[in-house]
Amino acid sequence: MDWEAIVLSLRLAALTTVILVVIAVPLAGWLALSRRRWTVVIESVVALPLVLPPTVLGFYVITALGTRSPVGQWWESVTGATLPFTFTGLLVASVLYSLPFAVQPLMAAFAGVDRRLIDASHVLGRTGWATLWRVVLPLSRAGLATAVVLTFAHTVGEFGVVLMVGGNIAGETRTVSIAIYDSVQSFDYATAAQTSLAMLIFSLIVLTATYTLQRRGGSGWPRP
Asked: What does the pLDDT average to over 216-223?
């Protein structure tokens, strides 16, 4: 197995998860608790990666991060480096691609909190953000855990966006999913089988953990 690719994937998934938890908690709280009708537009934008083909999202991300874009030019002027085909660019793409996997479980958990507790917090003089951090979030631990598990697992298994934005640079952007693809392309089916089996076991563990969390603490993912 390509241990270098596995370690890189785990590092990418860990950083993506940390960043998304920081972003997703306030965003999901605002979307779940806000009574403004137009928040549905923001919710739709957040959920776009769920329905967009990874290559489409990858194309827009690499265009937005390229040297001809304002973001890419600003980054190059500050750091002297480009974003596409680097680990940093890969991290930005992973955050965008895994955003709904962090936000939606939290939204479902926040929406399930008894509204009377939220109203009581407001009556006692707590602001909206204080209510989110001191009342809603502690009651949504299962949703938070589900968001962390799903975000981490989804990032580890990324392929299309990773290949579009990061390419296939060993030690820099070559993740485990790309390593499997390379093994198949070079007819090294033994290595591909070993790595695929490891990913299969990992996915099964993730799903088992997710469903266990949902049963213990209520649904962490919206169901029909």
From this structure: 48
